[in-house]
Amino acid sequence: MKNDKKKLTLNEAIKNRWSPRTFSQEAVTSEMLELLFEAARQAPSSRNAQPWNYYYAEKTDGNAFQQLVDCLSEGNQVWAKHAQVLMVSVMKKKIDANNRPNGKALHDMGAANVSIAIQAAGMGLQVHQMGGFDKEKAAGLLQLDTENFEPVTVFAIGFPVNEAHFSEEEKKRKAQHLTRKEQKEFVFRMSDMLRSK
Fold first, then answer.
1. What residues pair up with 55 in beta bridges, in sequence order?
2. How many structural domains comprise the chain?
3. Which domain holds residue 38?
């Protein structure tokens, strides 16, 4: 049987993912959220430890949503309060089997988070992850045992506004996102390196 060669292309969701600061008022459904969490569940992790937990509040949750907004830095509060969902990614620092530190936990948390971001982009949503938040305040709000759990990022989730309605700032942000290093700046074939020695 002949193998037809298909043209290889980059996954559209990866290509379309970015981090907007302006969201529409369109609701994010429970079904959509379940798919985002399923994307995290399917992410790879060292020893299959899956060292991630997610805590979220929808805008319609009122007080719970506002308490997450209050954990954000002032600059992030200004725009993130308009997202439909706020979510905190929390890393489990120790391995269940032996209670030892999991040196791969942060890497694995990142894998789960990017899985959520790509799944979101594939559904027309976007995720903006933020490091600008008060970790201690978030840990207290979530009642975390900080010996073993650490808040890593806060996500703002929603449908981005139509680009025709972008502010000048948002146009600049989108253009900045599209600026990427060339592969030759960060990819190195070892056999070429060794030959040059």
1. 88
2. 1
3. 23-162
